[in-house]
Amino acid sequence: MTTAQQFAAELQALLKHTNQIDLFFKPRSGGRGQGIFCVTFIKSPTGEVAALIDDNLQSVEVFLKNLPETPHSYLGETNDGWVIQGKVNQHPELARLNPSSLNTIRLNTYVTPQKRIASMNNR
Q: Taking every annotated instance into account, which residue ranges of this chain make up the domain Alpha-L-glutamate ligase-related protein ATP-grasp (predicted)?
């Protein structure tokens, strides 16, 4: 997407069947959770999509205009722009491990030259 209108139209489509959507904005060259933030988008009383910032509604245009333009650098690579992802609500049992973060499990696999899949965690 390259315009605020395109982004607003996409949000409008996502909000057809729900009252709000929480989106994470991550710097394209970021890592380790640096520079990320979550924004709630809702349908405003006028039917337009708005960002809810500190209990105040902002138009999508104003929100996008206020995004930092400073490129982030990670491992020597710098890129402008953002990766936008929906918020994941984890299962309550997983949240018991650490309720302030998204708890994940990484499973590494390796495909042998014989096309067998070997778990790297069970070696």
A: 9-116
